[in-house]
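can u do me a favor
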């Protein structure tokens, strides 16, 4: 029977107020938990990072006999095709870093990888300027790009010392 009267329990007391109070308390508790979690996260992000020796990349690489060589920021024009078939130019900005075996610098030839950096850069620019926009699309395009840059680094150094190409920056505009 819907009489428009608030629900009552067996003793004739109204139950609407208790249910409403439970929902209000549950909502307040949820807001409190979210607020505390957000505050703890913000506080944690503001704390300085505590890094022990061996946790940094350079320390780990040095211990394993690997060295990072920044090649520098490279900006080239790449061709792109519009929907109507017109050709236009876009910019590719890339900042590769070469990871190589430290034994290369200690070799008998007296060559150092840093001395070959201009030749590496020239080889990278030559390849990157020939790219089309579709060549660097998606994860497969990025993997092909890294593979080709690594191949060129090995050709310039005439050795297998280059291990990997790390990309610090990659923008296609």
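np, heres the sequence
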């Amino acid at each position: 029977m819907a009489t428009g009267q608030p629900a009552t329990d067996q003793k004739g007391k109204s139950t609407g107020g208790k249910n409403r109070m439970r929902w209000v308390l549950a909502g307040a508790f949820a807001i409190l938990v979210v607020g505390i979690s957000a505050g703890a996260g913000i506080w944690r992000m503001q704390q300085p990072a505590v890094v022990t020796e061996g946790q940094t990349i350079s320390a780990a690489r040095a211990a394993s006999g690997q060295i990072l060589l920044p090649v520098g920021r490279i900006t080239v024009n790449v061709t792109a095709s519009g929907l109507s078939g017109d050709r236009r130019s876009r910019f590719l900005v890339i900042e590769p870093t070469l990871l190589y075996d430290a034994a290369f610098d200690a070799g008998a030839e007296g060559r150092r990888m840093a001395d070959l950096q201009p030749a590496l850069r020239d080889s990278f620019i030559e390849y990157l300027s020939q790219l089309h926009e579709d060549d660097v699309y998606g994860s497969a395009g990025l993997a092909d790009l890294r593979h080709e840059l690594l191949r060129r680094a090995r050709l310039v150094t005439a050795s297998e010392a280059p291990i990997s190409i790390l990309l610090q920056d990659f923008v296609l505009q």
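The two ends are 69 Å apart (CA to CA). hope that helps!!
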